[in-house]
Design a protein that fits this description.
With about 375 residues, the protein is mostly helical. About 65% of the residues lie in helices and about 0% in strands. The protein has a two-stranded antiparallel ribbon. Helix 5 crosses helix 6, helix 5 (about 95-120) runs parallel beside helix 7 (about 140-155) and helix 11 crosses helix 13. The protein starts with a helix and ends in a 10-residue tail after the last helix.
């Protein structure tokens, strides 16, 4: 476990360099350094991380003849895009470690590119916030979340063709990415502040009482077919215990409420910033999905992953706001507050399936 503490402690507090007057080129170099370090940390693992044996089995068994027909879980067909990535690596003679290094490099390079594009002054802080908002070791959906992250630029710039191409690529790897498609038309809208608060608070209420009405909902949607209602029934019963229900504590509700309030203050001072609207709306949508399904139908919380990236974007926005209006001393204090929040996220990750993560095992030790 020590390796996790050392790596994440140094990573989180390296973000203080964003407050120093150092050239952007050096910040980009440090970002690249962290991409390399984290790629090796994630890619050289062995028998470590969630769903390890399932994905190893996919890699070892899949053949080109099964590109569109490989069956996992005994009944579910694997998306052809993810199958293609596995087969390409195998065709060039690579093993599963090569596959992990390849896919993690893609994810982390997208994180770095996203950080430089959407926060030129605080790219390190944004990159670190993204890392601490995700699990230690990405799996299939994490790759699609990174691709969706890349597509945010096309939402902001209104480039529908490139957006569609990005989302189709993501869907070919994990079908859950489909949920992001309609939000191309919604995320740029400037939603009134009061309505955002209402959405956030009402989602908490829905989450508390969803289990009481879900049976009626499933029966009411029976006209959509038995396959659809069966999937809802599965989601209603599977993955209970995926999350510790105490994690949706008053503390976390309070932090999200404060972040939303601060985000709205920043928006008030930056009129006409469509990028800010996109990330603010995404932040609230992610919170709403999480709140509604955190205690019931927890499998559906995974859809929030495509939106909660906005919870990372708020960090550099707030840091820039504080640095422009207050002295460096107060900016440093605020940085340490953000650093403590990221450490809190890190400590929560330690409780996520600990038996699958500790001790950290590397492929090097198995050679």
């Amino acid at each position: 476990m020590l390796i996790y503490f050392i790596l994440y402690f140094v990573l989180i507090f390296s973000g203080i360099l964003d407050l120093c007057n150092i050239p952007a080129s050096k910040k980009r170099f440090l970002l690249f350094f962290w991409v390399v370090v984290l790629t090796l940390f994630r890619g050289l693992r062995w028998e470590t991380g969630t769903d390890w044996y399932m994905y190893l089995d996919i890699f070892e068994r899949i053949q080109w003849s099964e590109l569109f027909s490989f069956i996992r879980y005994g009944e579910q067909k694997l998306e052809f895009g993810y199958a293609f990535l596995n087969l390409v690596v195998k065709s060039f003679g690579g093993g599963y470690t090569t596959f992990l290094i390849f896919t993690n490099a893609i994810i982390l390079l997208i994180y770095a590119d996203f950080s430089c594009k959407h926060s030129q002054r605080f790219p390190l802080l944004l990159f670190i916030a993204i890392i601490t908002a995700n699990n230690f070791f990405p799996v299939r959906q994490s790759l699609t979340v990174a691709i969706v992250m890349y597509s945010y630029r096309y939402v902001i710039n209104r480039d529908f063709v490139k957006f569609i191409v990005s989302i189709l690529i993501a869907i070919s790897i994990h079908s859950a990415s489909l949920i992001f498609l309609p939000f191309y038309f919604l995320l740029r809208i400037k939603v009134p502040s009061l309505l955002l608060y209402v959405i956030m608070l009402s989602s908490l209420f829905v989450g508390e009482y969803l289990f009481k009405v879900m049976g009626y909902v499933i029966n009411g949607l029976s006209f959509l077919g038995s396959h659809f209602t069966r999937r809802l029934e599965i989601y209603a019963t599977m993955a209970e215990g995926m999350f510790d229900k105490t994690e949706r504590s008053l503390f976390n509700v309070f932090v999200n409420f404060v972040f939303l309030s601060l985000f709205l203050v920043v928006r008030k001072n930056r009129h006409g910033n469509y990028q800010l609207n996109v990330f603010l709306n995404s932040f609230v949508i992610g919170l709403a999905i999480t709140n509604m399904f955190y205690t019931y139908m927890q499998e559906l919380v995974r859809f929030a992953s495509y939106f909660t990236i906005a919870s990372a974007v708020i960090y550099p926005y707030l840091m820039e706001y504080f640095k422009q209006r207050y002295k460096l001393t107060l900016s440093l204090i605020f940085f340490f507050v953000l650093a403590l929040l990221m450490m809190h996220r890190f400590l929560r990750l330690l409780d996520f399936y600990p038996d699958n993560h500790f001790p950290y095992k590397s492929v090097i030790s198995f050679l």
